[in-house]
Amino acid sequence: MFFDDWSGIGRVLIATLVAYMALIFLLQLSGKRTLAKMTAFDFVVTIAVGSVLANIALSKSTPFMEGITALMVLIGAQYFISSMCVKSKKIEYLVKPKPTLLLYQGQFLQEAMRRERVTEADVLLALRQWGHSSVKDVEAVILEADGSFNTVVSETIPESESALRNVHNYRPEDHEVISQY
Asked: Where is the YetF C-terminal domain (predicted)?
């Protein structure tokens, strides 16, 4: 059916605009973390919020305030879990994946690359994007928790200052790469 009546169009227009404004308000309250680069946890929340917003806008059977309540619960849960991750390393470990070392001291870590489904071409692309022409020029390439290759470490630094300390496959005590998690 193409068109029922103008009241349906008006309801969709008003419900969508009000729900959109409520969503923006809730996202402002929840902070920048809600909109940061997405991990799997963030992706699930984003999809759920989109689904609820669409339901508020288009479903006549969903009361408006119930939809807004659902948005508040989802964003509140995301805020709460993110806050708990800051307070507890155990919760952070359960919710957020750790970055993975893919190349270390000029050597591709094939097992880690296979586990993360990353090819040598992907790592070489990251090196080129960071302005490196050789794998020997870098200390490490890391696949970040959000799936990006935003980290190429150019030089060795003392282990106490190492940005690699929370990366899978890296042991700062002896600067060796281990092959298992």
From this structure: 87-156
β-pair partners for 103: 108, 141
Closest to 118 measured CA to CA, from 141, 136, 102, 98: 102
Residues 6+ positions from 9 with CB-CB distance below 8 Å = none
Provide the token pair at 151: 């980290």
Give the tens place of pLDDT for each residue, 32-53.
555 556 667 777 888 888 899 8
Chain centroid offset of residue 4 CA:
41
Q: 2-6, 56-60, 114-118, 162-166 — which one is most confidently predicted on average?
A: 114-118
- Would you kindly state where each structural domain of the chain is located, as residue ranges? 6-94, 100-177
- Strand ranges in the chain using DSSP code E only, listed in sequence order: 100-104, 107-108, 140-143, 151-153, 170-171, 176-177
pTM reported for the whole predicted model:
0.58
Q: Residues 78-87: contacts with CB within 8 Å, 24+ apart? A: 78/30, 78/34, 78/41, 78/42, 78/45, 79/30, 79/31, 79/33, 79/34, 81/41, 82/33, 82/34
The fold for domain 100-177 equals CRO Repressor (3.30.240)
Both tokens assigned to 36: 């940061």
What the block records as the tokens of 126 is 């990251």
Token readout for 30 is: 């929840």
